Amino acid sequence: MTTPSDIVIDVEGLTKTFGARTVVRDLSLQVRRGAIYGFLGPNGSGKTTTIRMLCGLLTPDAGSGTTLGYDIRTEADKIKRQVGYMTQRFSLYQDLSVRENLEFVARLYGLPEPPRAARDMIARLGLSGREEQLAGELSGGWKQRLALGACTLPSPKLLLLDEPTAGVDPKARREFWNEIHALAAEGLTVLVSTHYMDEAERCHEIAYIAYGVLLTHGTVDEVVAQSGLTTYTATGGDILKLSSALDGKSGVDTVAPFGNSLHVSGRDREALEKALAPYRDDRAITWTPSEPSLEDVFIELMNRAKDNFQ
Amino acid sequence: MNAIAAFGGGFWRRSGAMLIKEFIQLRRDRVSFAMIVMIPLMQLILFGYAINTTPRDLPTAVLVQETSDVGRSILAALQNTRYFKITKVVSDEAEFDRLIRSGTVLFGIEIPAGFERALRRGERPALLVAADATDPVASGAALGALGPLVQTALAHDHALPESSAPAFQFRAHARYNPAASTPLNIVPGLVGTILTMTMLIFTALSVTREIERGTMESLLAMPITPLEIMVGKIVPYIIVGFAQATLIIGAGVLMFGVPIFGNLLLLAALSTLFIATNLSVGYTFSTIAQNQLQAMQMSMMFFLPNILLSGFMFPFAGMPVWAQWIGEFLPLTHYIRIVRAIMLKGATFAELHYDAAALFGLMLLATAIAISRFRRTLD
Ligand SMILES: Nc1ncnc2c1ncn2[C@@H]1O[C@H](COP(=O)(O)OP(=O)(O)O)[C@@H](O)[C@H]1O
Ligand SMILES: [Mg+2]
User: Fold this and answer.
1) Could A108 and B14 be called an inter-chain contact, meaning their C-beta atoms sit closer than 8 Å?
2) CB contact under 8 A, B221 and A59
3) Atom in ligand 1 nearest the alpha carbon of residue A212
4) Is residue B11 domain-resident?
5) Cα–Cα distances in Å, from B363 out to A3, A25, B367, B368?
6) Which of B148, B175, B202 lies at the terminal end of a domain, its last residue?
7) How many domains does chain B have?
8) Number of separate domains in chain A
9) Is the CB of B46 inside 8 Å of chain A's CB atoms?
10) Residue A46: which pLDDT band, with cuts at 50, 70 and 90?
């Protein structure tokens, strides 16, 4: 059973406008305690803006809600003490060493022994031997780990991670996700934004945002099921030619190449099958009915959103 | 837990965290560090050189309206002082004026018609000396040496009575800068000018730098208040400014023999106040400016009137009333009064409380603006 105190983030109708542009539109979001919540969406879809509103760094133009039970409009000070926010752009001091950066955070939050807290965190991050290195001289992957270490240092209850794995190599990305799971196992709630589809699979729940609108949310399976898409996978033949031939046909909602195969999906099964009929005779192509992938779902959602909001 | 006590204790803790961070960054920033030492040294050496040079062979024009032995003796005596070098002898007044105006000569000496006769009669005639006082350091010293030397020479050559009353008078006419400031006035003024410049620049960059480097977003997401950030960013530079002031005043005393008649402790305390005031002003610019370049431009815009209207460059009392009004709102105006009064006149706090209060007021005003301008969100 879910009681209100189990909901860590609970916002409704959040809207943010910069000048004449509405960047986040009527966004509602609920995140359970202890969940790893994936916040997916293409670049510029409003992920960062939403996260900033959740921790009180931006004031919503409309809508309201709470983070950790505190009002995001009026109790930002209290939110700040219990939330670890890892910004999209590296925001530790590049001209301070690993140790100095961590000690700064420890002092600011009033941890009992800043040097010791920093030392422990350095050991946990596997940064021993690099503590005197300037943060600006670390590689991308190490920078991200350090940033994660800095925002978990004051033992927050909620982590807001804004594209923490952007531009990081696959191995470092995997390790980073292992660390996120370890933190969640300790009871932390994590909201993590990303535009990597494969990372969605590592979240307990996801939400997809495009053009500032939250289009769907739930577990990966739920999201796929909710989409109502019928998908066929075509292999063999000239995939590229087939792709451009099908694109835009009525009944065909998305056409997405995956390696040597092509995913063709439509919301209306009959219309889709009618559209595909002429191509099924082609001997070179093998057609198999399949489950839509998350990417198919997102592409379809985005195409639809584009028609509505652009 | 007592929330209020936690907040009270937290203030210094969080300001302290900020302060330590700023110190480390300052130590690593070689350019800023060099600036702290180089700006005062450079200015001191440049100004000090001008102060220290005993002017020699200053180009001088003589307007001779009568030829006489006494006239010749005076000219010879002038040359002997080594201050003057007579480069032109003219008999046309217009030509004489043109020479001074064009800067061809720094001095013009006029021996009027009937000078010798008047002298012999004991009428104490006037010898006109026109000085281009736009360079007060050069002209001041030379003018000072003029009287006694020439007097002695005349008495010797012409057996004029070397009475207590001089046989003639110099009518010195300092053109262009009537109240020529003396070298002694420059060192105290220099302390204030250098501090204004360096303190403004350091803090003016501090907030914009955090925004440009992207560190502000993290900082804002942490539980630290604008006042705590400000205190943490200003205090390290109070120490820096204090070291600079000590360096300049020390060098002024040792190298140029500038006296300190007043209380050193009072000087130190009011200097600290002045430093804090400038830091607050710089910090205010930092919260208003969009980027580091703008912050720099604002500082320069503020620096300029400080130099021109504070009494450093031109005598305060000689400025038009509107300029004096502006001057009253500039920290340097009050500090120059304070330093000159303490160092050269031995003034006590009782005589300086107005200027001290003005500095304090300006600091509070700047702090209030900075705190209210500081954006706690990214809106
Ligand atoms: N402070 C701002 N002022 C104006 N426009 C902004 C501001 N912040 C973000 N935007 C715009 O809002 C849109 C969404 O941005 P953002 O929330 O950063 O998206 P995401 O994080 O999903 O890439 C972008 O088009 C961006 O240019
Ligand atoms: Mg973003």
Assistant:
1) yes
2) no
3) 14
4) no
5) 52, 44, 6, 9
6) B175
7) 2
8) 2
9) no
10) very high
Q: Which two three-digit tokens encode residue A164?
A: 């923490």
Handedness of CA A207, A208, A209, A213 (dihedral sign): negative
Closest Cβ opposite residue A91 in set B13, B18, B215: B215
Chain B contacts in chain A segment 212-241 (CB below 8 A): none
Residue B174 pLDDT level (bands cut at 50, 70, 90): low
* CA–CA distance, B234 with B271 (Å, rounded to integer): 15
Q: A42 with A146, same domain?
A: yes
The helices-and-strands tally (H runs, E runs) of chain B is 15, 5
Residue B288, pLDDT score: 93
Question: What ipTM describes this predicted complex?
Answer: 0.87
Atom number, ligand 1, closest to the C-alpha of residue A43:
23
Q: Whose structure tokens read 């003490």? A: A81
Query: Which residue type sits at A22?
Result: T
Q: Which ligand is nearest to the CA of A210?
A: 1
Q: What is the C-alpha to C-alpha distance for residues A50 and A39, in angstroms, rounded to an integer? A: 10
Query: Which DSSP string corresponds to B192-229?
Result: HHHHHHHHHHHHHTHHHHHHHHTHHHHHHTSS--HHHH
Q: What are phi and psi of A13, to 5 degrees?
A: 65, 25
What pTM value is reported for the model? Answer: 0.79
Residue A66 phi/psi, 5° resolution? -130, 150
Q: Is the CB of A144 under 6 A from ligand 1?
A: no
